[in-house]
Design a protein that fits this description.
It contains 10 helices and no strands. By secondary structure, it is mainly alpha-helical. Helix 1 crosses helix 8 and helix 3 packs across helix 7.
Length: about 160
């Protein structure tokens, strides 16, 4: 398994602006090849407990985890993000930069989340090619999620 930093820089669950929705020459989107909304919901259902229980990142999810309504809202936004980013029909209405601004998310925390997503995809037995594409899309979110100060070590 490659180092996450290398893997994420190669990337260029997940470009919010719609990048990566379909490869050139393909007729099916990643969304369709993954299995559509049932697959998106399976990812969210497997991923949520992973991140809530991951001591490397759960402090960023503690408020949502403690409130069932917030947890449901977070899971719904995550499903919309995954759906849209993989070329599905959903419209993600969030603002990734605004949602993560001032939260102090470090490159290490982003890598931990990425490893949880990879573990979910492996647990769900996602094919290697689709898993690689999904993880590559995830890498495109790093600039919107990681705090500039945290990335520069200015905590």
């Amino acid at each position: 398994m490659r180092n996450w930093k290398v893997r994420l820089t190669i990337a260029g669950l997940l470009a919010v602006c719609g990048a990566g929705a379909a490869e050139v020459g393909r007729t099916e989107t990643l969304f369709v090849r993954l299995g559509g909304m049932p697959a998106v919901h399976a990812v969210v259902d497997d991923l949520w407990p992973r991140i809530v229980n991951d001591v490397r990142i759960n402090k960023w999810f503690a408020e949502a985890a403690a409130d069932p309504e917030r947890a449901a809202a977070y899971r719904s936004k995550l499903a919309s993000l995954l759906c849209q980013a993989t070329g599905g029909p959903c419209q993600y209405s969030g603002d990734m930069v605004a949602a993560h601004a001032g939260r102090g998310i470090t490159p290490e925390a982003f890598a931990a989340m990425a490893s949880d997503i990879e573990a979910t995809l492996e647990h769900l037995k996602v094919n290697a090619r689709e898993k690689s594409e999904a993880l590559a899309l995830l890498g495109t979110l790093k600039p919107a999620v990681v705090s500039k100060d945290a990335a520069e070590g200015k905590r």
